[in-house]
Amino acid sequence: MKDADAWLRTPRGVCLDRGFVDVWRFPLQASTRWIDLYRSLLTDGERERAGRLRIPAKQVQFIIGRAVMRATLARLLGLHPKQLPITYNPHGKPRLDGNTSGQSAAFNLSHSGRWGLLAVTTGRRVGVDIQEMDPRTECEKLAERFFSRRESAALMALPWNERRTAFFRGWTRKEAFLKAMGRGISMGLDTFDVSLGPEDPPAVLATRFEPDEGGSWMLNDLNVAEGYAAALAADGPPYEVRRWRMTLNESLTPF
């Protein structure tokens, strides 16, 4: 892993800063005691939503993800996790309802397999996505169905042994971009193009729904763990990505 991609322990005193996007990586495995503790941080509505998930692993992912999100935002804003007025837009993106303690925060959450990611910033839109690269995924067929023609052609031009990584690289970039805009996948993954080649810097290459939209965005790949792809999208002026690692215990301690 490159030094620039290293996940560091969160230092004391970290705070919201428009010049940075902070991303926390956290594990999604926990004992029953920890899961019960995390569940206690959720609202009644969130606990009900978790209870409707039939697959136990998905329920655990939801509980840990939402609890880490609430605990982290609460520490940054000086509030109790349950005091955060988090609402969801029609596409399911969480947001803070109004100004909180004189500060505003933009954030996004994603989880897959053993890992979760939480991106937080202020003064700009942000989206994050992580995917476990399942070897059973039929990448070429999915790209032909969901990617733009430009992206699908770029994927098929690569050697066959590079296509799986390139597919997930492109998929997470596209998901992060859509999530940052607050739009769902129903808008169409083929309505914009992202880079996906191994030598191509991460970028939104073109958008067809709003021709000038792509130029205001920056994409970053996140090196989370072996077998995973992840990406971050944020708009506005240039920013620096700060990557923090978080254990279960650290998720509930002050910064």
Overview of the molecule:
- The chain has 255 residues and is α+β, with helices and mostly antiparallel strands.
- It contains six helices and twelve strands.
- It folds into two domains: 125 residues, 4'-phosphopantetheinyl transferase domain (Ribosomal Protein L22, Chain A, Alpha-Beta Complex), CATH 3.90.470.20; 102 residues, 4'-phosphopantetheinyl transferase domain (Ribosomal Protein L22, Chain A), CATH 3.90.470.20.
- β3 and β4 form a beta hairpin.
- The longest helix has 22 residues.
Tertiary shape: globular
Q: Please report which band the strand proportion falls in: under 5%, 5-15%, 15-25%, 25-35%, 35-45% or over 45%.
A: 15-25%
CATH class of the largest domain: Alpha Beta
- SSE string: EEHHHEEEEEHHHEEEEE
How would you write the strand order of the largest sheet? 1-12-2-6-5
Largest sheet: 5 strands, mixed
Using the 3D structure, state the CATH architecture of the largest domain.
Alpha-Beta Complex
Number of domains: 2
Rg from alpha-carbon coordinates: 18 Å
Give the uncertain stretches in residue-range form.
Answer: none
Total beta strand runs: 12
Distance between the termini: 25 Å
Could you name the CATH topology of the largest domain?
Ribosomal Protein L22, Chain A
- Give the rounded overall mean pLDDT: 90
Helix segment count?
Answer: 6
Helical residues, percent:
25-40%
- Class inferred from helices and paired strands: alpha+beta
- Name the CATH superfamily assignment of the largest domain: 4'-phosphopantetheinyl transferase domain
